[in-house]
């Protein structure tokens, strides 16, 4: 039986990325319902067609409807989960009874659950067991996407027909999803790169130079690949848009929440103060200790991620963490 078109897209999370994806789906001609946690965000989108809190200054299609009612979003043809990673279990648990069996659910959150060490696909398998999971991930700043600038991402789904239907539902010339079947590789790249971006930000904030930033990015990618392969991901997925592509973007610009947070740490600022002054979430902070715990369970060495975890948990100062990495013994590259 042919897969029916996905004409009504529900988006869970009206932060910058969720709002940008709502803009893309509307441009693709879909009916879009966007769930917002904050009533003022939903009101701004519906009345002014702007999300001034998370994506200021970018006009939104007037057809996008925002709501604070999860049940109004959950029964749509397809769902994009764009809430923060650490809130995914709570949000999907609350919407579970409204989601129809067989609904494609694309995970757009990038992180690892800190309390359990589980990947986002594992969380969704527990909370939405009758949904069909997919992962949407890749190098994509929300403002670029919302402004219609060219972007390419990975869309991973084990069900080819549903994956193709999702690509057709949200793909437009300026937003190009590349279909894959490796969900672990697609989601792990987006999760680990956030941790590595904090490290690259620290390099910039401490003024350690472009050479150090390049070395850290390359060695960080080696860590990401080791963990991914140990978990069953494909090396070609990790070397694609959702892995290397996202790493390059996130580690190279302070437009990245995680990179800018790392830069502030490198400049000597206090983590709690940095977080308190932001309305957005830097997922790498919570993901760093979860990545390290996951790597240890699989006997994978990840010294850069360990250094970031030590910094954000207060176990090491920035200077001590940098010194520890530079004092490591010389070894073969591979």
Automatic annotation (TrEMBL):
Transmembrane segments: none
Known EC number: 1.1.1.94
SUPFAM superfamilies, A to Z: 6-phosphogluconate dehydrogenase C-terminal domain-like (SSF48179), NAD(P)-binding Rossmann-fold domains (SSF51735)
The entry's keywords: Cytoplasm, Lipid biosynthesis, Lipid metabolism, NAD, NADP, Nucleotide-binding, Oxidoreductase, Phospholipid biosynthesis, Phospholipid metabolism
Location of the protein in the cell: Cytoplasm
Biological process, per Gene Ontology: carbohydrate metabolic process; glycerol-3-phosphate biosynthetic process; glycerol-3-phosphate catabolic process; glycerophospholipid metabolic process; phospholipid biosynthetic process
Pfam family membership, one: NAD_Gly3P_dh_N
Domain Glycerol-3-phosphate dehydrogenase NAD-dependent N-terminal: 9-161
Pathway: Membrane lipid metabolism; glycerophospholipid metabolism
Glycerol-3-phosphate dehydrogenase NAD-dependent C-terminal domain mapped to chain residues: 182-322
Positions contributing to NAD(+) binding: 13-18, 142, 257
Catalytic residues identified in the record: 193 (proton acceptor)
GO cellular component annotations of the record: cytosol
GO molecular function terms noted in the UniProt entry: glycerol-3-phosphate dehydrogenase [NAD(P)+] activity; NAD binding
Binding sites annotated in the UniProt record for NADPH: 17, 54, 110, 142, 257, 281, 283
Positions contributing to substrate binding: 110, 257-258
Residues noted as binding sn-glycerol 3-phosphate in the record, renumbered to the chain: 110, 138, 140, 193, 246, 256-258
InterPro entries recorded: 6-PGluconate_DH-like_C_sf, 6PGD_dom2, G3P_DH_NAD-dep, G3P_DH_NAD-dep_C, G3P_DH_NAD-dep_N, NAD(P)-bd_dom_sf
Source superkingdom: Bacteria
Catalytic activity: sn-glycerol 3-phosphate + NAD(+) = dihydroxyacetone phosphate + NADH + H(+); sn-glycerol 3-phosphate + NADP(+) = dihydroxyacetone phosphate + NADPH + H(+)
Annotated function: Catalyzes the reduction of the glycolytic intermediate dihydroxyacetone phosphate (DHAP) to sn-glycerol 3-phosphate (G3P), the key precursor for phospholipid synthesis.
PANTHER family: GLYCEROL-3-PHOSPHATE DEHYDROGENASE, GLYCEROL-3-PHOSPHATE DEHYDROGENASE [NAD(+)] 2, CHLOROPLASTIC
Family that this chain belongs to: Belongs to the NAD-dependent glycerol-3-phosphate dehydrogenase family.
Name of protein: Glycerol-3-phosphate dehydrogenase [NAD(P)+]
């Amino acid at each position: 039986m042919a897969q029916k078109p996905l004409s009504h897209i529900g988006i869970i999370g009206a932060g910058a990325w969720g709002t940008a994806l709502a803009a893309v789906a509307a441009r693709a001609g879909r009916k879009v319902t966007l769930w917002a946690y904050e009533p003022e965000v939903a009101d701004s989108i519906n009345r002014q067609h702007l999300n001034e809190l998370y994506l200021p200054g970018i006009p939104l299609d007037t057809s996008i409807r925002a709501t604070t009612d999860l049940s109004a979003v959950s029964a749509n043809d397809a769902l994009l989960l764009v809430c923060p990673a650490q809130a995914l279990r709570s949000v999907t648990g609350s919407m579970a009874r409204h989601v129809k069996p067989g609904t494609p659910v694309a995970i757009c959150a990038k992180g690892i659950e800190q309390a359990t060490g589980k990947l986002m696909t594992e969380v969704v398998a527990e909370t939405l067991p009758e949904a069909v999971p997919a992962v949407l991930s890749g190098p994509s700043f929300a403002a670029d996407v919302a402004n219609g600038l060219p972007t390419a991402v990975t869309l991973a789904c084990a069900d080819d027909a549903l994956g193709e239907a999702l690509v057709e539902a949200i793909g437009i010339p300026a937003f190009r999803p590349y279909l894959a079947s490796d969900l672990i590789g697609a989601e792990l790249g987006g999760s680990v790169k956030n941790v590595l971006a904090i490290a690259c930000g620290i390099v910039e904030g401490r003024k350690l130079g472009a050479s150090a930033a390049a070395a850290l990015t390359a060695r960080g990618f080696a860590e990401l690949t080791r963990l991914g392969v140990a978990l069953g991901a494909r090396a070609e997925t990790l070397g694609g848009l959702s892995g290397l592509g996202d790493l390059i973007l996130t580690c190279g610009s302070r437009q990245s929440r995680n990179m800018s947070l790392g830069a502030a740490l490198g400049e000597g600022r206090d983590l709690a103060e940095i977080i308190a002054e932001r309305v957005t979430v830097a997922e790498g902070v919570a993901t760093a200790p979860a990545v390290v715990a996951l790597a240890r369970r699989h006997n994978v060495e990840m010294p850069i991620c360990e250094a970031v975890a030590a910094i954000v948990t207060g176990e090491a100062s920035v200077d001590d963490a940098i010194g520890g990495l530079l004092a490591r013994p010389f070894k073969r590259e591979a």
